[in-house]
Write a structure and sequence with these properties.
Metal Binding Protein, Guanine Nucleotide Exchange Factor, Chain A, two-stranded antiparallel sheet, 1 helix, 61 residues, mainly beta, 5 strands, three-stranded antiparallel β-sheet
């Protein structure tokens, strides 16, 4: 299955091919409000589809 997602602001987007075998809850305030889950995938299954100059290291807060 193909899953699509993005960062909080939407400037960086990605796609992941695979099956969700297990997920964990993120404990940050944004993800807690939205009910978001984390899913770890092998690097080769992840494709960045939009990034431009906005790709970098994100620090919450």
């Amino acid at each position: 299955m193909l899953y699509k997602g993005s960062c909080h602001c939407g400037k960086v987007a990605f796609e992941v091919k695979g099956e969700i075998g297990g997920a964990v809850r993120c404990n940050c305030s944004i993800c807690a409000r939205k009910g978001a889950l984390l899913w770890a995938v092998p690097h080769e299954k992840l494709s960045l589809v939009a990034w431009g100059d906005d790709l970098g290291r994100y620090t919450f807060g």
